[in-house]
Amino acid sequence: MNIQGVLNIHRKDRWGWLFIPSIILSSSFLINLIVSLLINNEEPFYTGGVSSIFIYVLVLGILVVTQSFPFAIGMSVTRKAYFCGTALMGLIASFIIGTLLCILSFLENLTNGWGNRFHFFHFPYLNDGSFLEQLVMYIILFTYLFFVGFLIASFARRFGGKGMLLLILAFLLISSISVILLHQFQAWSHIFQWFLSQTAVELSYWLLPSILISTVLSFLLLRRASI
């Protein structure tokens, strides 16, 4: 089975790739819209409900390996074909979701928060810049989240539960040491100033090396992963 066969496997999982994210996004939007209608919107009403779709894309990157890798290998799919097909499906999904959010953000801004000053998709700073810049930012962000989840699942498939435990402990240790060092050298203010000097799309470009690293590591891990 080639890459096209792997894409067909993923396309058959309409719940994971289509229905669940649609339900999550639409239900969160409707709930927050109802809340905005029940209050007096003299000021713009902002909600973080859209973050649910970002979290789901990260989880999707984890679940896709957990659910489809053993089946695909059992169907005589090579690990290389599985990786390429799954990575391509992740890129397609990131493009579609990113484009959808960008269009909804544009419509929300155009209609002044759906006529009720309700902001679910469009936010200051995050959606500054041209339509193309926002589109690029969303695609990069969703691609990053998917491949981080993909990397986590590939690591778990390769090293199992004990490996994941050691990874979590190492992450917590490195994070704690980093926080201590940043506090010791009083670097927090410089970091915040640097972030404030960047636009949202400029910050997204810094995720590209992480996407590349996650992609390469995922491929290397899956090559030696057990079923």
TrEMBL record:
TM annotation in the entry: 15-39, 45-69, 81-107, 135-156, 163-183, 203-222
Endpoints of the signal sequence: none
Keywords: Membrane, Transmembrane, Transmembrane helix
Tree of life domain: Bacteria
The protein's name: ABC transporter permease
Native species: Bacillus norwichensis
